[in-house]
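User: Hi! I'm a student and our assignment asks us to look at how structure tokens line up with a sequence. Could you show me two examples?

Assistant: Happy to help. In each example below, the sequence comes first and the structure tokens follow. Example one:
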Amino acid sequence: MTRALLAALAALLLAPATAMAEDAPCPPFEVTGSGPDLLLVPGLGSSPAVWDGVKDSLAKDFRLHLVHVAGFAGRPAEGDPATLVNRTKAEIIRHLDCQKVERAAWAGHSMGGFLGLMTAADHPDRIAQVVVVDSLPFFPLVFDPAATVDAVRAQADGMRAQIAAQDDAGFAAGQRMGVRSLVRNPAFHEQVVDWSITSDRATFASAIHALMTTDMRPRLGEIAAPVSVIAAANPFAPRSRIEPLYAAAYAGLPQMRLTVIDDSFHFVMIDQPEAFEAALREGLRAELAD
């Protein structure tokens, strides 16, 4: 994982929350398949289509709930961009209520994985287990294992301002350059870029800021659900670096199970779909057994 990855990843979450009206409509999430309930949550600026490579196969064994985050990949933004994280958590819980689902497993990519850790800590009665896909409990660890929120705050402020100030052409050009370090398979570059450039810019920028300034490590001990982590390794982020990085970051979860998939960039489900599905199913083995 690199700075380009962090910048792309970083748009995954956000701080404070807005209370949702009790009579708010059910969220517009696709539900398909049958079996144990599984939430699939995409990452920064991404569409639910990120799961297309494994969706049909998983739907044979799980009832899938494909989350589409407001403000990302063509879905209109809602509310103050600074409330994205808590609003998204609340919307997912509201979706479970609408679908009469008491507990569900959670698989989340990047920001979606980080959000899974937060939701499992905040709602231990609703999240049965979590599979985190290429995500750390504190994103700045990617470039500095000794990073702290205070140390990176100025950088996060600058990144948010820079992204918000870019014109459309400049933002698109940056996304086309950055996707090369996020997706190894060039056939998917334009699709992933399109998700970013059709996202609400203020939401995207604020999400990056929140990811960079929210450290979940102190709260890992609050998570009762089993957690599995799938991480990508490649020549730029070799297994020899990834394994100790993730082990240290998740030290607060001593039972965490880590699977490293080689020859993949950040979008593991695109670059290595077969290995990814196998690792995901292994991480969800308890739910499948139920």
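Example two works the same way, sequence first and then tokens:
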Amino acid sequence: MDSSPTHHAPHPLPWVDLSLGAAAMAGLLLLTAYIATLSSATIILAVALYAGFTLSVVAGLSLSGCRFGPADRVTLVRAVLVLFLASLAGTPALLQTLAWPYALLCLLALIMDGADGYVARRTSTASAFGARFDMELDAFFILILCIALMVLGKAGAWVLIIGLMRYGFVMAGWYWTWLNEPLPESFRRKTICVWQLVTLMVALVPPIPDVFTHATLMLALVLLSGSFALDICYLYRHRTARRP
């Protein structure tokens, strides 16, 4: 009898889904080209963003061994939308021309944020990859909204702190490894994340006055800084207990 351990075949990679996502991305760019002039830099950026996204998904699935499930397909649809918005975020003239459509697409991406979690619960297909996929997309979406606000002149460069804070936390974990320890579930953390997205999206709406925009963005920055400070304090207090 063969007593060797059983090796499960790896799950197939979602090349069809990713190809459909690329086609949807191209369709959004073509539709935009009918409304405004797209520069070659915008198209190159869109291609580079989707290529990097595809590599990240493939690498994440290969390392985690998870299956690309129904909830991940919902997240993929939102990712295509976010990457499309990202490709336009660095062009001031394009953002001015498409101010209302851009804001409405941001609203659509925000509404879709909870759909993948709902699908994962309904289909019992939640996975570590899916949770990380959703979290990284949220962080990237927040950064893109910050860049768009800065490019439109609705906020100064300081608004990028909101989008870069999470990435700064991850980089700090390269040196202070105790920052990489898992955090307990937190309603406060989830609420503040949604607050950031809502605040940034509302600030993009053209009629919103600058005074209101600056006040809400400053409040968002204060709340986010406080949330990160609480998490860092928690991890610092528990760093010794987790050591072997």
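Here is something you could point out in your write-up. The first helix runs from residue 15 to 35.
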